UniProtKB/TrEMBL annotation:
This is Glycosyl hydrolase family 13 catalytic domain-containing protein. InterPro entries: GH, GH13_cat_dom, O16G_dom_2. One of its GO terms (molecular function) is alpha-amylase activity. Belongs to the glycosyl hydrolase 13 family. It comes from the Bacteria. Signal peptide: none annotated. Residues 11-387 form the Glycosyl hydrolase family 13 catalytic domain.
Length: 501
């Protein structure tokens, strides 16, 4: 049993979590200040988004120096103070590692062009943010490859020196005391060396056939994870696999390659359909029966759970939280979910910060669309919606400074009630013995998802009407009317019944 199999993680979007020095950007001083809040919430671990010096074209996912702290977030001493306090609070810390690309102003780009991928002529590959994935570089008289923004240059993992540098970086942070890593788009590290053109689907969207999941990538990951495990006992290794194909995702945690991978098959579901959610849970059991899946409905790359899936319905948001924190897997709460935060609302392109939204807007304008139409397209694409400054239940402003991201933060109504729901559920989860138990039963009955783990029956009623369960036991979490063996569960409620009480 690994410690992380029982844990609940919380994603901290560094820029928006808590601003300690009041300059409008979250930082390590703020994060340290908020550790008691996170303790009170009841999470066991934090995933910190990139805090390294960066061009900030992609909010830190364009790293200029892997072994330092961007002054935006403080100093290495602030980081160390935070780590010390986190340890005292028994909080595990995993950090984001972006090894697919560096920022174009990383010193390697100048000093070691051989660390990157070059081509004399571009093929048809598109960047994941839109537009060509190749940009001409006059000095090299060649095109460099960038699977994301043109300022994010893809590393050449065919060069063993890149691996040697990566190991030094991992060692550096392990020595600083981190408990694990979240590897960014780790299945993208290699590409087909012959660079065949990618095909398109029926909607005209590129199928990324030759620029991810390519030969050699698993051997590279095995070397990276082997290195981490040899240097730290029980290190937690999470892979972000750029895919929503479950078999593909699952293949990256096979044979202990990584400990877990993010399950976008469930996590990025667009609409709330109980059958679809249930089917994904079943598929996850089939694909990952011998490993832990991950569970989340939000992240900095998608619309907020409350707006996207729950459509502002607090009961639905609570029910999804109930599922996320009781189903089999390692949950990752996205910061703000615990107070019911909603999507940020934007009125003009000047308020956008996300390169993906800005690029979509600019492309639409270049194609002759009106300002209004382009803004609509940009708004659909921008990930800024989920990146607004945190609104805490127990503390008013995120910052007195002008926030780094504009737009309107929808004040979460009843934040305290939502926070209490999360903390009660997390406390129940911690005290009860089911976190690592398999499903003894996993069924869809009417509009309820039901499962038994250990001595508990969990019922999540996604229906609009009461649901009757006939089971001898005592309700130990959630509200239900009990009459002998009859238990009536209200609409959009999650209930736990202790079958052995
Ligand atoms: C995945 C990250 O979650 C996302 O925010 C980023 O833009 C891309 N990787 C590129 O690093």
């Amino acid at each position: 049993m690994h410690w992380f199999e029982k844990s609940v993680f919380y994603e901290v979007y560094m820029k928006s979590f808590c601003d300690g020095n009041q300059d409008g950007v979250g930082d390590f001083i703020g994060l340290k200040e908020r550790l008691p809040y996170l303790r009170k919430l009841g999470v066991d671990g934090l995933w910190l988004t990139p805090f390294y010096p960066s061009m900030q074209v992609d909010n830190g996912y364009d790293v200029s120096d892997y072994k330092a702290i961007d002054p935006l977030y403080g100093t290495i001493d602030d980081f160390r103070d935070f780590m010390k306090e986190a340890k005292q609070n028994e909080m595990k810390i995993i950090i984001d590692i972006v090894f697919n690309h560096t920022a174009i102003n990383h010193k390697w780009f100048k000093e070691h062009p051989e660390y990157y991928v070059w081509k004399t002529k571009p093929n048809n590959w598109e960047s994941f943010f839109g537009g060509s994935a190749f940009t001409f570089h006059a000095k090299q008289n060649a095109y460099y490859y960038h699977s994301f923004a043109k300022e994010q240059v893809d590393l050449n993992w065919g060069n063993p020196d890149v691996m040697a540098e990566a190991k030094q970086i991992l060692r550096f942070w392990l020595e600083e005391g981190v408990d694990g890593f979240r590897f960014d788009v780790i299945n993208n590290l290699t590409v087909d060396k012959a660079f065949p053109d990618n095909p398109f689907d029926q909607k005209g969207e590129m199928i990324h056939q030759y620029d991810r999941n390519q030969r050699g990538v698993k051997a590279i990951i095995a070397e990276l994870s082997g290195f981490c495990r040899a240097n730290k006992e029980d290190v937690f290794l999470v892979g972000e696999i750029s895919s929503d194909n479950l078999d593909e995702i699952a293949s990256y945690s096979e044979n202990h390659l990584l400990d877990v991978t993010f399950n976008f098959n469930l996590g990025s579901i667009e609409n709330l359909h109980v059958k679809e959610i249930f089917d994904e849970l079943v598929r996850m059991e089939e694909a990952l029966s011998d490993r832990m899946p991950t569970l989340f409905f939000g992240s900095h790359d998608m619309g907020r759970l409350m707006s996207r899936l729950a459509l502002q319905n607090r009961m639905v948001a609570k029910l999804l939280a109930f599922l996320m924190l009781t189903a089999r897997g390692i949950p990752f709460i996205y910061n703000g979910e615990e107070v019911g935060m909603r999507n940020q609302i934007f009125q003009s392109i000047d308020e956008f910060r996300d390169v993906q939204g800005i690029q979509a807007y600019e492309l639409a304008r270049a194609q002759g669309l009106s300002e209004k139409e382009a803004l609509k397209i940009g708004t659909e694409k921008t990930r800024d919606v989920g990146r607004g400054p945190l609104v805490f239940a127990d503390r008013k402003p995120f910052s007195k400074g002008k926030p780094w991201i504009l737009g309107r933060v929808e004040t979460a109504t009843d934040a305290t009630d939502m926070f209490q729901f999360y903390s009660r559920l997390l406390k129940f989860r911690k005290d009860a013995d089911f976190q690592t138990r398999p499903y003894e039963k996993l069924v869809l009955e009417g509009e309820t998802i039901q499962f038994i783990r250990g001595r508990y029956l969990f019922v999540a009623n996604f229906g609009e009407t009461d649901f009757l369960v006939k089971e001898a036991g005592v309700v130990v979490f959630g509200e239900a009317k009990q009459n002998g063996n009859d238990c009536t569960i209200g609409p959009l409620c999650g209930v736990v019944i202790d079958l052995e009480a």
